Amino acid sequence: MAIQRAATARPRHNPKEAANVLHALNPSDPMEIIKAVRRGLPGSTIKSVAEEWQLSLSELYPLLHLKARTAQRLINSDRLDSDVSDRLVQVIKLHNKCLDVFQDRNKVLQWLKTPNYSLGDQTPLSLLDTSEGVELVHAVLIKIQYGIFA
Hints:
- By secondary structure, this protein is mostly helical.
- It has helices at residues 2-8, 15-24, 30-39, 45-52, 57-60, 68-75, 82-102, 105-112, 131-145.
């Protein structure tokens, strides 16, 4: 009976650890990021990212290429696999770049959800489901940061 309970018990995850991941990724230390992806981010990081970006979970799942049922299971898991962790890291890095450029969380959220001429009149958020989209949004942020028309 004890073996059955141990096998069905949910893994412990720490939402505080997940929140720290959002701000702890140091883009100047790519080896640390690689280690974090390989190790797997805490499952609760998915929820922390959604809260930080003021998105519903159903808005975030497509960016991570996840179905709702799979995502719900992963949120309660101790560690995410490297593919989901990698996509989350890309989203987190972009969020940190947005904060660096705009210096204000509300401006970041507004910018991410507003159609942008430089992005073909699409919202930056809508492009984050592909690596090419992440790169394009990052390039626009660099232009904004350096005062180049964006």
